Amino acid sequence: MLPGAGKRVAFYAPMKPPHHPVPSGDREIARNLMALLSASGADVQLVSDLRIYDKHGDAALQAIQRNAARDEAAQLIRDMPAADLWVTYHNYYKAPDLIGPAVARARGIPYVQIESTRAKKRLTGPWAGFAEAAHAAADAAAAIFYFTGQDRFALERDRCGSQTVAPLPPFLPLEELPAASSLAGPMLTAGMMRAGDKLASYRIIAETLAYLPEDWRLDIAGDGPARSEVEALMAPFGSRVRFLGQLSREELSAAYSNSSLFLWPGVNEAFGMVYLEAQAHGLPIAAQDRPGVRDVLLARSYPEPEDGAEALAAFTAALLANPALRSRIGREGRDYIARNHLAPAAARRFWDVAAPLMETQT
């Protein structure tokens, strides 16, 4: 029997609902979580698409969203179909769960969170109210699942009562690995083109390319409001850089399958789904040794961020120059993903914690 068979799960993602039109890692993870729970036998309902998100620390916006959440919670308490478990994905100071704790308490069902962040330094300043709400929601959770080691420390430090804090390593929504890459094509980069951390990674890539021997090619998958800035960064390299635009899942899979390696520094990535996807296709990764990123990469010695683009270029050049090395690392990466980051392992980890919580409610 599937581990979630017969269970009814109410699912909510305050920062970005799974059907949001703008692609992002958050949207992809929310979709993957719903698919994971459904594939393990549960009846999963997206019970609300109310977006609670304050990017800039706007007190007026926070008040509006609190009122909307209060109304939404009242409606769900009254009308939500029967559920055995409430699951909230990504509760943090910019996007607190203002709905789940109240509804779960009123309905008498366990409340759990996946990827919750506790940030005490945000309890003062423009997000203070939302940060307090995020902490209160975390306190209400019977269990909190974390994706990476960097989240674990604060969650365990601020653990509430007998709350369970458990690992749920990032996963691909696959039962088995996709076909392996030929490792014979250009390098591949895939990332949203927007200001901030993503653009910072693209800047490092441009600096890295300038240090590489000239016999290389790079395909870039992605689009976004900062595309013109990314194009300007890559302009000095001419036709050696090709822009693929925003790709469908199938098109991106084809790009992985026809690439030699995956290049993405990973500036402030929580972990990066693209690293899992690339390794599942057998691509060696050229990245920097950063928190979060290292949690999803095959264990190797990666260049330190403080060593700059020159070190990342040397690391990348060594891979480009040695097909046998790329092949060996690619095989090891596929084995690593199969053991740790596919759906069956993730489902077992989730239900091993969640199922006993439901038993105690009956």
UniProtKB/TrEMBL annotation:
Residue ranges constituting the Glycosyl transferase family domain according to the UniProt record: 213-334
Pfam families according to UniProt: Glycos_transf_1
InterPro entries on file: Glyco_trans_1 (IPR001296), Glycosyltransferase_grp1 (IPR050194)
SUPFAM superfamilies: UDP-Glycosyltransferase/glycogen phosphorylase
Domain of life: Bacteria
Xref: Gene3D superfamilies: Glycogen Phosphorylase B
UniProt-recorded name of the protein: Glycosyltransferase family 4 protein
Origin species: Leisingera caerulea (Phaeobacter caeruleus)
